[in-house]
Amino acid sequence: MIGRRGLLATAGVLAAAYAMPAAAQEVVEKRVFEAGAFQTRGGATIKNTRIGYQTMGRLNAAGDNAVLICHFFSGNSQAFGRLSANGPAGYWDAIIGPGKAIDTDHYFVVSADTLVNVNVPDANTVTTGPASINPDTGRPWGMSFPVIAMRDFVEVQKKLLDSLGVKRLALVAGPSNGGLQSIEWAAAYPDFVQRVMPVISAEIDAWMQGWLDIWEAPIRLDPNWREGDYYGQGREPPLRGLAEAWKIVTLHARDRPWARQFDRKLPEGQDPARRIGDRFAIEKWLDDAALARARTSDANSFLYMVRANQLFLNDYPDLSTAMQGAARRWLVVPAPTDRVFLLEGVREFVDVLQKAGKQVEVAEVGGTLGHLNGVVGMAPLTERIRGLLAQ
Amino acid sequence: MIGRRGLLATAGVLAAAYAMPAAAQEVVEKRVFEAGAFQTRGGATIKNTRIGYQTMGRLNAAGDNAVLICHFFSGNSQAFGRLSANGPAGYWDAIIGPGKAIDTDHYFVVSADTLVNVNVPDANTVTTGPASINPDTGRPWGMSFPVIAMRDFVEVQKKLLDSLGVKRLALVAGPSNGGLQSIEWAAAYPDFVQRVMPVISAEIDAWMQGWLDIWEAPIRLDPNWREGDYYGQGREPPLRGLAEAWKIVTLHARDRPWARQFDRKLPEGQDPARRIGDRFAIEKWLDDAALARARTSDANSFLYMVRANQLFLNDYPDLSTAMQGAARRWLVVPAPTDRVFLLEGVREFVDVLQKAGKQVEVAEVGGTLGHLNGVVGMAPLTERIRGLLAQ
């Protein structure tokens, strides 16, 4: 049985186990970008915005060999490399590095932590969000932090890329929430972005807005949430509610074949056929994994991350309009057994791109993990990614 | 926009709108079956078990023209007919009645409320469960009610059929949880059951056990739940938690095309791009629908209903073994866009039946509603159902 690990850790470990490259792993340095005052799409100003980032490879003189990787809902900038020689590899390390699909001998690869990143307790994540100190009050923002849209993620990243001297992105890519950021990038900066590779993502329609609400609902139910006012001494964070929220994400992001290991299994001492409070094996695993993940994340940030996703392409009246003027070259990567971004939805998204005259290819990512295949199963797509970059 | 209606009401109304039969609606009488003392599969005894039921048509002298219809998770015995001349029609009224697919001019059709039925506040639902009075204490059982397995549903129904003089079932059928009961019936009484029609259902594997746990989790998070001890004066039921639970079921049981009516819509006065507490249109609809459903159901019963589902075929080591000795003739009806019982799972179930040498046909039920297609979209399958009954 799989041990107690959070989503982030699981993804890293699985990537290492499934796709360990022969080449030596690269050690990357986590840096902080001080974005200063930032005006959100919603009209608010955050005075001291900062996010973490990391890079690999070298920017060329023209500034046009850059690749931006955007992270998934629960991830951070560590898409590639290790933060120390013995640390875990980044979630897409199998396709990013010297000689790999996104070859850092030729490309300058950048990845940043988003605003309202959920991994607040993680020393290697640097973000600005509801757990940050509001300079006007000296106390954590909590739910008074401004609403952040997906487009705001893009705008802060744009400032970062400008500060690094990037003039053009050869590629913007990412899985899930990272794919949504990539699509938002393609709409916002069509001339700046040469190629787009959204993986396990498609439009956030009302169906997905509803599911995102279901993900977050347990946080608001937890009496410890206190309308977001749980920071500070003597207060308990809404750990149970946050764990239930992660439980939904954890199962939703996987698939039936993964769950087979738990079929007809009971945890030691548990007898759910006789005691209503007892657990089945999959329940116990989800309880443990979700609680571990709750301990390394922040509940309010989860709520803001949900909202940012719900506000995908919110500057546009609809998806077709957003894609009309967007970047031209696309490699769209669905996981056919994805239970979050259903294959039907990805197909509709590809239709919209084609009707908008884009140059679109589709490559499926396989595996037994459903949605998570797009995080841990990308190595077999190496030639497709090289092909995209060669166009 | 769809108004405020619970699942049960929605299903009834949709059935009426989509498939109103030309024939006059039949008025049926709701009756009570006193099953007396009942021993559960878990080894407990319930002294005074009772369930509601209804019938249409006449049992023949041989007692072998009976059909049993089993209800879905949130349903009750009203699969067919109206309880009063102007009342709503049963959820499968389009296929059950005089001259319909399951023709009550020829068949004696029975449908019963399950044990631990969730519709406790509904005067037309009669059930025994955690909200019932424990005769040993004179107080509601709450979470001291014995665990009920899917097989217990079958055993109480068997007592009811015996009391009615039924010697053989020409067909046992039902949607979702009703399909699971049908499969359990086929395994438990292979000689008593001639034909089986499970609709939008398949095995409850660990994947589904996990999802069922996610459905119920908000109830346990609600501080008003109090470990199930919320009955009686001065206590509030866990309405918020129960509503969140129904919200998950409500969205899970639908599909993307249904949600399109909410795309890019905002409820009046709501501005979720600027206010973190504000709602999108689909969230508002789900909030309202789920709260209405919570007011007409019981939280503890929801927990027990989940457990009964998780204990599907729990008397057998695995599905293949359970199906080896099961009834022979099957019509399996998946909804291809079902997001609860995924099409892949139904296909695996059909494979198991075929390997066990059963005579199996498959008929898909279409529509825009995903899982709910199997409740409201059955009329087009009329000839397939007639064909099954003619075999």
Automatic annotation (TrEMBL), chains A, B:
Residues 145-317 form the AB hydrolase-1 domain. Its EC number is 2.3.1.-. The keyword Amino-acid biosynthesis applies. The active site is at S176 (nucleophile), D338, H371. InterPro entries: AB_hydrolase_1, AB_hydrolase_fold, HAT_MetX-like, TAT_signal. It is found in: Cytoplasm. Its main location: cytoplasm. One of its GO terms (cellular component) is cytoplasm. GO terms for biological process: homoserine metabolic process; methionine biosynthetic process. SUPFAM superfamilies: alpha/beta-Hydrolases (SSF53474). Transmembrane segments: none annotated. GO terms for molecular function: homoserine O-acetyltransferase activity. Homodimer. This is Probable acyltransferase. It comes from Roseicella aerolata.
